[in-house]
User: Fold this.
Amino acid sequence: MPDVPALETLDLLKTYANGVQALKGVSLRVPPGDFFALLGPNGAGKSTLIGILSSLVNPTSGGARVFGISIHRDRGAVMRQIGLVPQEMNFNQFENPFDICVNVAGFYGIPRRIAVQRAEKYLNELRIWDKAQQPTRFMSGGMKRRLMIARAMMNEPRLLILDEPTAGVDIEIRRSMWQFITGINRAGTTVILTTHYLEEAESLCRNIAIIDHGNIVENTTMRALLSKLDVENFILDVPAGIAADALPDVPDVKLTRIDAQTLEAEMSKQHDLNSLFAALSSRGITVTSMRNKTNRLEELFVRLVEHGRPGESRAAA
Amino acid sequence: MNDTSVDATWDANAPGFSVARANAIALYTITRREVKRMLRIWTQTLIPPAITMTLYFVIFGRMIGSRIGTVEGGFNYMQYIVPGLVMMSVITNSYGNITSSFFGSKFGRYVEELLASPMPSWVVLAGYVIGAVLRGLLVGAIVLLIALFFTSLHIVHPLITLTTVLLGSTIFSLAGFINAMFAKKFDDIAIVPTFVLAPLTYLGGVFYSVNALGSPWREISLANPILYMVNAFRFGVLGISDVDVWIAYSVMAGFAVVLAAIALTLLHKGVGLRS
Assistant:
């Protein structure tokens, strides 16, 4: 059934006992095989949504289907499709990674012989096999994060949900984690990712939803979203130095002196760079190198969560 | 990342997948984990009750009991208190096992491994209860062995002895599970054993026959569920009891059914677990 979405939520609403409305009617559709980014500021409702999907939070109303199976009608069957890597560490600090993985496999009804093979496979692939028999309290933060991914893979899920999986992890381990998860995605597993490292989402994900104050404020393809950003910022290196009053006026370009050797140029994506360089040359300013200032998705993200969907009011979103 | 290829075939979406078999494996896994935990921390789970009960046997059985002489049914005081002390060990250890283990999983958040799994609520409950009952049985066996160093015992009704210890242990495992579900801090799992369980146990006919009590204390004692467990167990071991053994069975079965229903309902709703 190629058309059955990996995840479909319909008007999910969650109001906590203290009155906080974490989700205000979230409807989402994640295609099978997708690498999907779910982004939002702290407290936007991402973890609540993931909590509902992984059976850790009871929704107030609304529904969700995972590969066409209703979470209300057959919770067990839905859970067999899902692997969860939560934001907070949630394993027994007195147990070792091997036992944790084998036990979790057992909770899914996986025979012990297969569970043992899978534990060895995934702990190896995530490079923590050498720590497999040590209590987890002696592991580093990065190892614990990788253990949670290995644990989530024990049932070889069709939908892998990663809630801030690389928080506090150094760049080398982060890259190796993404290499692993990209491989899993290529093999057919649908991946839903929340992260605060927006460059990760930009480089990895094909589709994206941005949630803010319990509402989906954007849900589109990454390419379509990035194309909405019509402004680019460049950093120009000027080693010879430049005086504060020496900047030329360039039509439709906002040129700012950051320091004596650095300029920033903000311009429309359609604007040509030749006129900028011509204007700088006319003042005797030589540019030796140039780079993009910020992550593009970050720029959009800030706009969306601060101002709502471009061209629309937040209430309408 | 390293690549290791193994034959780890198992597919929940394949035809012929058995939910019943998956549940049986899950039940075995929780039980196994509970037993491993109990054995890993044996200095906390098995040794303390052995020491405590040895002291009871020495002080109450040997020192004080020798002055009391023969009690009901021609048994000496040591023989009379052994069944009650074994039962006391069983229920307190079953209760303590499940409260500390399940609350520990809540406190450490690894209860989420269970909640986010496909297991139905009854499998989670049954796994923890079986683990707690096994600890109760193991501690009961240890205490009984220690008792044999102090006195001789001949178990009159082995089947009644076994079923009583299983029922009593199950009842207090279920009660402990409910306590752990509501508990928000470690103090909350100590309140019930201290202020409810201990008084009920000591007033439940472990050290005396309620027939020796005058009215209304005898009638009040009959409202104590532990009295029925202790007496049914004493009937199984010694063949004497203050209450009819079938009434004791009925009371125990009633408690077990009601507590299981409450625990399952709470677990299904996720009280104290899901927000």
In short: The longest strand of chain A covers residues 21-30. Residues 309-317 of chain A have pLDDT under 50 and may be disordered.
